[in-house]
Design goal:
Helix content is 13%, strand content 42%. The chain is mostly beta strands. Strands 3, 15, 16, 19, 20, 21, 22, 23 and 24 form a nine-stranded antiparallel sheet that branches. It binds fe (iii) ion.
């Protein structure tokens, strides 16, 4: 709930608002702006003028960090608007996508959830691939030497192995339950070679890097399965927390620009799940086993559900088959995207320079 659970709001009861609230909160301004416009259009007319008058907000962004001060007074007459706020906390489905088969690398047959789109709907996420297959022929050709610049790649493996090597001397194997979070920064040339005689279950997510950090040094965060917190909710849902918070746990991946959350949820038949997500962040789920129910619609394995950015919680349930999903969220960058192959920059000139550097051998800094 925006008011009840917002840490910036010290008063838990939505209809018993304290006379004076003072708080500082960057996410709230986004919500307040939306709510005021929503209320003005179709909300509760008697409560709105008063709330609009009382709710004063200032935008004082400094180095990308909001420093908003609010001081306002609520009366019982404002409770209608407060309830509207609370009802808006549940995120709605914005778009759904079904993975499509692609040939990538040296001939890996994979299933792509999304990649380049002019609207940049998944900002800051750029691409999602599911390269799972029971047949090694589909993946054994692998992804031989190729460059990356300007992005992070997140490789999460649940069955089989991916051997990797790179141009700066790193080498290793990502195995069952492991994650590799690779920040290409200014540039890296690597190869990723899937192995698995009895099949592979694995996913790769690309995350954009903001302009100010695109040309920083490459960096790896690689965590073995035992380093990734796994816990069970009271209703039997099992969560593996790769990044971000979940209950009292926190994923091991840190220091990222987009404040990512990446959680692997296993839901028993009929189990219901509510995942908090900061207002304004992009969030999506990928269903890779079973079927998920969200309000009146069902989403089956191979589907991606992208949620609206309004609201602070994602609610879903598993159908009778149970389900397994990846839940991903992150802060949008709102920057221009210039993308060609494995390199993603902000301008065409930066792209051209990157490929010139590849040709003349100056790509690696
Ligand atoms: Fe790669």
């Amino acid at each position: 709930m925006i008011f009840r659970d917002n840490p910036c709001f010290p008063h838990p009861e939505s209809t018993q608002i304290s006379p004076v609230l003072e708080f500082i909160c960057c996410s709230f301004c986004v919500e307040a702006t939306r709510v005021l416009s929503f209320c003005t259009i179709g909300g509760a007319p008697t409560a709105i003028p008063r709330l609009s008058l009382l709710l004063k907000y200032e935008f004082e962004g400094k180095d990308g960090v909001c420093q908003h001060n609010y001081q306002t007074t609520f009366s019982p007459a404002d409770s209608v608007c407060i309830d509207i706020l609370n009802s808006m906390s549940k995120r709605k489905v914005a778009h759904t996508f079904t993975t499509q088969e692609f040939l990538e690398g040296a001939g890996v047959r994979l299933h792509r959830g999304f990649s380049y789109m002019p609207e940049n709907l998944f900002d800051p996420f750029l691409l999602f691939d599911d390269f799972s297959s029971e047949n090694p022929v589909d993946f054994m050709a692998g992804f031989p030497w190729h460059p990356h610049r300007g992005i992070e790649t997140v490789t999460y493996i649940l069955k089989g192995d991916v051997e990797h090597k790179d141009s700066i001397g790193n080498a290793g194997v990502i195995s069952k339950g492991d994650v590799q979070w690779m920040k290409s920064g200014s540039g890296i040339i690597h190869q990723e070679m899937p192995k698995g005689s009895s099949g592979l279950v694995g996913f790769q997510l690309w995350i954009n890097i903001p302009k100010k950090h695109k040309m920083t040094a490459p960096n790896y965060q690689e965590y073995k399965a035992k380093e990734i917190p796994e816990f069970e909710y009271a209703n039997g849902i099992v969560a593996r927390v790769v990044a971000g918070p979940a209950e009292q746990f926190k994923g091991p991946v840190t220091g990222d620009d987009v404040d990512p959350t990446y959680i692997d949820f296993q839901l028993k038949p009929g189990a219901e799940l509510s995942v908090p997500v900061p207002s304004g962040y992009t969030s999506f789920i990928y269903v890779f086993d079973g079927t998920i129910q969200i309000t009146d619609s069902a989403y089956k394995a191979g589907q991606i559900v992208l949620f609206d950015r309004i609201g602070t919680e994602v609610n879903l349930g598993a159908k009778s088959s149970g389900a397994r999903i990846l839940f991903v969220s992150g802060k949008p960058l709102h920057e221009p995207v210039a993308w060609h192959g494995p390199i993603v920059m902000n301008t065409r000139e930066e792209l051209v320079l990157a490929f010139e550097e590849l040709n003349d051998g100056t790509f690696i800094k």
